[in-house]
Specification:
By secondary structure, the protein is an alpha/beta fold. It is built from 20 helices and 14 strands.
């Protein structure tokens, strides 16, 4: 029995798991209050990303484009940034933060983003927008390397570097959530409130689940402020829930401002949520209240009702963001399931050094493949042509065709999920997330049992 970590054998990509770095940077930008990013590249670099956000959240988000054309690719396009900043500030008087997010085209032609920002700071902003607070932040996310996951990581680090300012200790904990959903932020804030911990949540996207009010207003935007970002340097510590989505910023704050940091594990499942609460306890000095012990007990009871009878030895394939995939695999193992295929959609060299992956390699007693730089063709090919037997697939909506074509039940989790309603409201983190995941897995398997008439009589006597 072995757990094999390797890159896929093909050089091309068929049905990618991820999109490119600028997408991750754009996701960070919409989590900041009074912020509209300018994506320096072709208009499609914004249009298709906004479409993904709209599909996932069923809502609209403001992101601007410098809208490059052929002449810009030949002669340079810093002038497009100057025009974009001017138009954006004129049309949106509330905007305080404008990340300038690069793309493959502008990185290849070598546009000097820092130079144009200096020019704007000393020219346009002083002459036309004197007295107005405007922060222009360069975010370098070339699309020809990395993925939306590394783009998220780069953007968080760039924004923290731009704003973090050491003044007076604030007694808070920085909580860098990584690429999560509004429901996850609600669950995390609940855990913090139960422990009476004051925290700066980066990024505060609970408001993405925005109301439609009687006056027809309803703006979806994050609530992390400039002041929050500045104050990150004054915290008692930083917890980054995901190693590959915010870890760089946590390490920067530790190195630059001596703010202690803890990176991961993602609090998915009972084991990892226990670890997260202990990290909060150590960092804050606050005790874990009995009420959370009760919540833990409810979650364990819910899982116990399902695990041995319905989950034992079920073979699972999981794909998506690396921290999510690894944490889901750990949770499945705790529920007696057998993850046999993990697909990580980029080729981050850090995976080979990841302690969680090393633990899987050391402890699983069945054959497991972990494929780096994977695509969804890897999943489909193994099922159709290589005899991979699966009871369940877990991942975002782009894997739906592999599930449909091969008649394998699938639990939607991750980004983007657009073929099921309201999943962004449901947490996968914390004890509440453990309950939701376990019951979602169970109900998906129950539906499949009924559809295939596979021991469906069990549900009548359960």
């Amino acid at each position: 029995m072995s757990c094999d970590l390797r890159a896929k054998e093909r050089s091309g990509i068929i049905n990618p798991i991820f999109t490119c770095q600028p997408c991750g940077a754009q996701y960070v930008s919409i989590g900041i209050k009074d912020c509209i990013a300018i994506v320096h590249g072709g208009q499609g670099c914004v249009m298709f990303v906004r479409m993904l956000f709209a599909q996932h959240f069923k809502d609209n988000f403001d992101i601007a484009s410098s809208s490059l054309h052929e002449d810009s690719a030949v002669f340079g396009a810093t002038g497009r940034v100057e025009t974009a900043v001017d138009v954006l500030l004129a049309r949106y008087p509330h905007v305080r933060v404008i990340p300038i997010i690069t793309t493959c085209s502008t990185e290849i032609i070598g546009d000097d983003i820092e130079g144009v920002i200096n020019k704007l700071n000393n020219g346009l902003l002083k002459e036309k927008y004197a007295g107005r607070e405007v922060h222009l932040v360069p975010v370098h996310t070339p699309s020809f390397k990395g993925s939306m996951i590394s783009g998220y990581d780069v953007a968080v680090e760039s924004l923290v570097k731009a704003f973090a300012e050491q003044t007076t200790p604030n007694g808070k904990i920085n909580l860098i959530t990584g690429w999560v959903n509004p429901g996850d932020v609600t669950a995390l804030k609940h855990l913090l409130a139960m422990m009476q911990i004051d925290a700066t949540v980066l990024f505060e996207i609970e408001s993405f689940d925005s109301p439609l009010m009687p006056d027809k207003s309803g703006v979806s935007h994050g609530e992390t402020t400039v002041e929050d970002l500045k104050d990150t340097a004054n915290a008692v510590g930083t917890i980054a829930l995901n190693r590959y989505e915010g870890g760089k910023a946590a390490k920067y704050l530790e190195k630059k401002f001596k703010v202690p940091s803890v990176i991961g594990p993602s609090p998915i499942g009972i084991r990892n949520t226990d670890t997260f609460l202990k990290q909060l306890q150590t960092m804050s000095g606050k005790p874990i209240p009995e009420a959370l012990v009760k919540e833990r007990g409810i979650a364990i009871d819910a899982i116990t009702d399902l695990a041995h009878m319905f989950f034992a030895d079920k073979r699972v394939a999981i794909f998506g963001a690396p921290d999510l995939v690894i944490s889901l695999a750990e949770f499945c193992i705790d529920m007696e399931m057998k993850p046999v295929l993990l697909l990580l959609g980029d080729d981050n060299s850090g995976y080979k050094k990841d302690d969680r992956i090393k633990a899987l390699q050391a402890n699983v007693d069945w054959d497991m493949e972990i494929i780096m730089n994977a695509d969804l063709w890897e999943l489909d090919d193994r099922i159709k042509n290589k005899g991979l037997k699966l009871d369940l697939i877990m991942g975002h909506s782009k894997g739906r065709w592999a599930a449909i074509d091969n008649h394998i039940p699938m639990v939607r989790v991750g980004f983007p999920t657009y073929d099921r309603a309201g999943l962004y409201r449901h947490p996968v983190v914390g004890y509440a997330g453990a309950i939701w995941l376990a019951e979602e897995i169970a109900n998906t398997l129950f539906t499949d049992m009924e559809y295939k008439r596979n021991k469906e009589w069990l549900l009548n006597v359960w």
